[in-house]
Amino acid sequence: MRNLLKFFRILMLVIFALGVSFAFAANPSVPQEGGKQYAEVISGNNALITTSARANPKLYGGPEVEAIKTWGVGSPNSQGWGEIFTFLQGRYFMQVFGLIIILVPLAFLSHFMFVGQKKFNHGKKIRVFSSYNIIVHWCAAIPFVLLCLTGLAMVFGDKLGGGGLVRFARDLHGIATIVFAIFGILMFLMWAKSALPKAYDIQWLMIMGGYLSKEKKPIPAGKFNAGQKMWFWVCTMGGFAMIISGAFMFFQFSDIDTLRIMALAHNIIGFLIIALLITHIYMAVFAIEGALHSIIDGHMGEEEIAILHSYYYKEINAA
Fold it and tell me: What phi, psi does 148 have (nearest 5°)?
């Protein structure tokens, strides 16, 4: 327990230090010292700024007025990714995110009402997660959820009134990215082997893990079922792809077309991540009684393992 408290103290100090650094970082909404653009005070743009130009001519400064002609759908000089980016960003991205955060919870509400929660005898418990597993999971999960919430706050920024709230979301988004990058790697290394696909995962997918039935019968799954494995790979690999695309957009160390591609990828991967995050939360909190406790105290009921993770149960008994 003493080592655990020491670990969290160190983590809090790291997060505080990151927060201070972001607080004093350049704010893109205000002019910088000497009249410089935001891009000019970000080190990643050094290669784009020449001594004869005050800013990246493809992104900022006087030439941007002429560049606007290539941005809109149907513009006379439309070229590159400008047209598709403007079309999707202006008309569809926010609407798709809105549909996801409305329709996915409604689907699970219907499941809860008509199929209901799975309940098991939690008398005898088996330890399935170590203290290290629990710490790394939550240190990755908390910033990941913050990334999703702050990302949505920026997507719906104008609907939320913009201003300070959205700027705070942007800064918190950056801090959470760094924390997730650290613990996301640790989580990947920790569970990648257990999350590798198995032949019986196909059977799990064909019966949707048994979640469409109230019947209790052994489900083909290892320590992680096919749905959890899918979420693991989307969360880690998708999360890393979001970090890379987000870094391109934040530091702007590329040309405008590459930034548009990164923004498109960031949004499209975001659709999948938000939908599966809602699914993961529903499964952990509502679909199975007491399931959340397994990643809090590391134990699962024997009956739950025997039914929902039948292959893992066989492994435990054979050991």
Answer: -65, -45
Beta bridge partners of 301: 125
Q: Do residues 184 and 140 lie in contact, with contact meaning Cβ atoms separated by under 8 Å?
A: yes
Q: From the CB of residue 229, how many other CB atoms can be counted at a distance below 10 Å?
A: 21
Q: Return the pLDDT at 42.
A: 47
Tokens 């640790």 -> residue: 186
Output the pLDDT for position 88: 82
Q: Say whether pLDDT at 60 is over 50.
A: no
Burial of residue 222 (number of CB atoms within 10 Å: 0-12, 13-18, 19+): buried
* Residue pLDDT, tens place only, 217-231: 999 999 999 999 999
Report angle CA 84, 266, 138 to the nearest 5 degrees: 165
CB atoms within 10 A of CB 257: 15
- Spatial CA neighbour of 309 closest among 229, 233, 218, 244: 218
265 burial type by CB count under 10 A (0-12 exposed, 13-18 middle, 19+ buried): middle
Dist CA 305 CA 232 (whole Å): 19
Cβ partners under 8 Å of residue 181, min gap 6: 240, 243
Place of tokens 């629990």: 134
Pick the closest to residue 175 from 201, 203, 141, 146 (CA basis): 146
Q: Per residue in 18-45, pLDDT tens? A: 454 444 444 544 444 454 444 444 444 4
Return the structure tokens found at 112.
């809860």
In the structure, what pLDDT confidence band is assigned to residue 187 with cuts at 50, 70 and 90? very high
N-to-C CA span, the chain = 29
DSSP 3-state of 198: coil
Could you read off the pLDDT of 79-115 as tens digits, one per residue? 567 778 777 887 889 999 999 999 999 999 999 999 9
Residues in contact with 228: Cβ distance below 8 Å, sequence separation at least 6, in sequence order: 195
